[in-house]
Each structure stands twice: as C-alpha cells, then as structure tokens.
Design a protein that fits this description.
The protein is α/β, with parallel strands linked by helices and 209 residues long. It is 28% helix and 20% strand. It has helices at 14-25, 47-57, 84-93, 110-113, 127-136, 156-163, 202-205, and strands spanning 4-7, 30-33, 38-41, 67-68, 79-80, 98-104, 118-122, 140-141, 169-172, 183-186, 193-196.
Amino acid sequence: MPTEIVSIDPAHPEKAFARCREVIRSGGVIAYPTDTFYGLGADPRNPAAVGKLFSVKGRQADQPILLLIQDSGAVRDWAADVTPAADDLMERFWPGPLTLVFKALPDVLPELTANTGTIGLRVPGAGVTRDLLRFLDSALTGTSANVSRRPSPRTAEEAAAALGDQVDLILDGGPTPGGKPSTIVDMGCAVPRIIREGTVPLKDILGRR
C-alpha cells in the first residue's frame, strides 16, 4: 500500500498537522520538511516509535538521533547543564541550522543518545517546521529521511522514493533548501567544540570576523 502523502494548505495547515499528530501519537513515523532536508519524525518519548525509526533508517544503535524543538525554552525539557555559552549561541543562531549537543536529562531515552548521555537539539529555521512543532507541542526526532549513508531528500517525492512504504505518512511542504547539513557543536566542554561544520561557519561560532 503506498505511503500516505498529505500536502500542507498554507491557509489552513492545521488539517495536515492534525493528521501528523494522529500518526505520531499512535507510535508512527512521518517524513516532514525541515530547514535543510526532509526529516524523519517520531515521538522521542516513545521507545517503540524510536525503535521503528531506527529500523526505517537502517541506523546503527551507536549513532545518536538529534531532536528538533519549537523554541529555546524547550531545551531544558531535554538538556542538563545549559551554560551561558549555550544561551549565547541559541540567541545568535536559533532558529537556524545549528545543532547543540548537551548532557541529557536522566529520562531521555538512551536510544536517542546512543548511550553517550548527550542529546543534540535544534530549533529549525523553517517556519513550517516550527509551526508543526508548536501544533504538536512536543519535540520530534530530526534525522534525515533517508536510509543511512544515502542521499538526503529535498522533496516529498524524493522521500517517498527513498523510503517506500516504510514510513506511515509524508508531510508535503514543498522543496527544502538542501545544501549543507546543520553545524554541530558540543556544549559539554569548557570551550564549545565543533563536531561538524555545516551551514553555520566555524568563524561565526567563534565570533571571528
């Protein structure tokens, strides 16, 4: 059976968002647009849903899964030890393609952290993604909607071609920008450490001109 594809009506997006909520609350996995590529969304509090996401993606258990959150106020739902340096980067670069890695709170699923005790968080730059997160009033997993080590999809059609009927729903919000992935910064060190340089340049993170 083909995967359900739901298009967003810009005038009334809540209808499509409500269908996403039904799927996610039932433990399903959706593909949805972000500010870089299409992502795979599951309830990060539901172990079975997270397990299904790993199966869909063919992801190894030693690879963590980042979360997309609706605003910086949601950071403390997932992260411990939020430092002034982290607050500064959030103020400067969120919403946007910067993922910050924090020490995770004890109740965060170890599957998300790959048993590292850390969790990556990002407020996406795309307004439609933040609108979805606000409608859901929860975080979503934010890993790209592809099989591991294969190209990340920019459109709903590419996500459908990549994943077939393995996801429960694809939210079609039009093409995403693509390009480089988010920059990842470890905030668990005395000095923030760059894990991956992506869209946000290293010199901007360090405040260089």
